[in-house]
Amino acid sequence: MWWLLVTMCFIHMSGNAFCFLGKKAVNPEASMNISQMISYWGYPSEMHEVITTDGYILQVYRIPHGKNDANHLGQRPAVFLQHGFLASATSWISNLPSNSLGFLLADVGYDVWLGNSRGNTWARRNLYYSPDSAEFWAFSFDEMAKYDLPSTIDFILKTTGREKLHYVGHSQGTTIGFIAFSTNPMLAKKIKAFYALAPVATVKYTKSLLNKLSLIPPFLFKIIFGNKMFYPHNFFQKFLGAEVCSREMLDVLCRNALFTITGTDNRNLNMSRLDVYVSHNPAGTSVQNALHWSQAIKSGKFQAFDWGNPFQNFMRYNQLTPPDYDLTAMNVPIAVWSGGNDPLADPQDVDLLLSKLSNLIYHKKIPTYNHLDFIWAMDAPQEIYNTIVSMVAEDKN
Fold it and tell me: Which residue among 275, 342, 346, 349 is the active-site one?
């Protein structure tokens, strides 16, 4: 959160001079919701509500076809895109249509679905708990894998009439895929293929800002951050996107804010879209989820949430310590794209992951890529997306 303080101080010191910094044209999507962002470019848009078995209400968005093929629907492969840590479904539609995976897949004839994990901007309701309560926020990526993915995947398959779908995950979207598909064999059978961008399982070698969180003793973590929302997307972030980042001289501040956790690749980012990125990110998650990542860095293991003492762990897991997730148990065909300059999905952690994947069908390491290049880089279609399109095209069922 230090970058917020720095930016606030900068604005305060600038005073009226702020008006003379030279405001650039603001992309209208910076102030739109997801349906509006999709419709803005002429694509059909649907919003569905998925209710998980533990009561969370997730907004899931659908681009059923491209702009010009409404009369040629037929049976088309369903592709489900799941965002990463602190992100949302906007990850896949924040660039121009020619550079956004969600739009590219729709344009070649696929049925595209965009998921949202519990607790982010578009998934902040529950049948039983108010988001003002601590109970609402008592989750981490464990629950996203156990409840969110199965509920969303089953909903998509029921709606489309398909038996299987293609799953694309970025960052934490791959994490929950690894957990769900290795612990839930029935769910794994519903996945045609898993496309993992910047995959994250262990984070033993991560060099991101999350390392700093792991230095905080567990008893202090929730004292400092509370027990509800972590890194929420609120009015101040919206102000940064629409007002601060739209001013040419403040681009550097926004780059630093956006890439605090994930690293930066200024040469491969479309800076004219910066206001869109910042207006929709970070989308928020729970403090418990952030604590789970902190635990993972400290332990170096890929395991369930540690509830803090052996008794609580035993009550939940029937053992005194959190169980490890067995990556070798996942048999879903998987294609992996990793970055050589990724501070979050460090190449050493990715190498450990690859060695445990029993059905690896493809791997490409992009030496210059950092963590967000996989969703926003200007050359992502050439480096990644065109290959995903081709692989999905092999699905004839």
Answer: 342
